[in-house]
Design goal:
about 375 residues, mainly alpha, 16 helices, about 75% helix, globular
């Protein structure tokens, strides 16, 4: 029991945000009289927030490196506009157009990363300039008008669904099977992780608590998959998000480059003295942010089936808020990919729930601002207690 208590205290922020997400979901499910968790609305939640979650993954690395990027919303709009020019105006194929769009995003990130890492201009200034530059370029290339429609195959990136290989009628059987497979994979990794920790004499939670944890997560996975299966199955964009989460979780926790990002954010001078190429790390963090901003722009354009001059407005604030709500530290060096995803889901569920209740947009902004302030205050409070 003492071990469990210590583990909870050391991970209070992560557990707290999971509990907050569950509480918010339960609250809006009750007050909306069951509308929030209807299969159609759950699918809409995923599709409506996918581009913010993609940005949050990249923004987390930026914040962990003790930087900030205010330009991601404008780059999202710019890449959406360029993809429309490539696919709609010039009839370029979807695959080469997508690859060129991602390359443009990388170049936009490299442009900003160069000034930040090698000229030592503060990221706030560089990305603020980038926000204005790329917004202006978006307006210029679109001539202030929306452009579309996109090819049907491109639209499926955001609006399509994984086909049912088993030909289910009322339920999407493939989705249910994938849920079972994910559950088995999760159980395998939990058991292996416990064995590895015991082998090296690390503290582990009591077996009964592990069984309870596995049971709760397994129920949650399969219940979520059942909701998706009751509509059209797994959205294509959820598959994309899943692979991004797995890939970036691996990079940040299992690779040298990932640890270097945390080292630079925690103490840049110490990291440099330890042999870390700090300038290069910061540069590539912004290149990565540019690529993910481009991907977000493609997903958003595919969902709207058009590129619009006003696309991406406020996306940077939502991505930053998702990271801080999910446990990223304002001082850098701290944060997790799943934390950013949970933070993004908190914002997404609140937006959707308040819309279902008829809360005005102005009041929604006020409430989200208060939630962000409370989350950061809670982070500072818990850290002061631990120290």
């Amino acid at each position: 029991m003492e071990t469990l208590k210590k583990m909870i205290q050391s991970n209070i922020r992560e557990y707290g945000m999971v509990f907050a997400l569950i509480s918010i979901v339960v609250f809006f499910e009750i007050v909306s009289k069951g509308t929030l968790l209807m299969p159609l609305n759950v699918t809409n939640l995923i599709q409506q927030n996918s581009y913010i979650l993609i940005l949050a993954i990249g923004m987390l690395l930026v914040i962990v490196a003790f930087q900030i990027d205010l330009s991601v919303g404008s780059i999202t709009a710019f890449i959406g506009a360029m993809s429309a020019i490539l696919m709609v105006d010039n009839q370029l194929g979807v695959v080469p157009a997508v690859l060129l769009s991602l390359l443009l995003g990388a170049l936009a990130g490299a442009w900003q990363g160069y000034w930040i890492s090698y000229f030592r201009i503060p990221a706030f200034i560089v990305t603020l300039a980038g926000m204005l530059i790329f917004r202006g370029l978006t307006m210029t290339v679109l001539n202030g008008q929306s452009k579309g429609p996109f090819p049907v195959s491109f639209q499926k990136v955001s609006n399509g669904f994984v086909p049912d290989l088993f030909g289910g009628s009322s339920l999407h059987i493939t989705t249910l099977v994938i849920g079972i497979i994910l559950t088995l994979i999760y159980i395998y990794f939990e058991i292996n992780s416990r064995k590895a920790k015991k082998q090296y004499n690390f503290e582990v939670i009591p077996l009964q608590f592990l069984v309870a944890k596995i049971g709760i997560v397994a129920i949650a996975i399969n219940w979520f998959m059942y909701l998706l299966a009751s509509y059209k199955g797994i959205p294509n964009v959820l598959v994309l998000l899943f692979f991004l989460i797995v890939m970036y979780t691996f990079i940040t926790t299992k690779t040298v480059a990932g640890r270097h990002i945390y080292a630079v954010g925690g103490n840049e001078k110490a990291a440099k003295l330890s042999g870390v190429k700090t300038k290069s790390i910061v540069f590539w963090v912004f290149v990565n942010m540019g690529v993910l901003s481009a991907l977000s722009g493609l997903v958003f354009a595919a969902r709207l089936n058009a590129a619009t001059p006003k696309a991406g407005v406020g996306f940077e604030l939502d991505a930053i808020a998702a990271c801080f709500i999910g446990g990223a530290s304002v001082a850098g060096g701290t944060g997790a990919i799943m934390g950013a995803i949970i933070g993004g889901l908190v914002m997404g569920v609140m937006n959707n729930g308040m819309s279902l209740l008829g809360v005005t947009v102005d009041m929604q902004q006020t409430i989200k601002g208060l939630v962000l302030l409370v989350a950061v205050a809670f982070d500072i409070y818990t850290k002061s207690k631990q120290s």
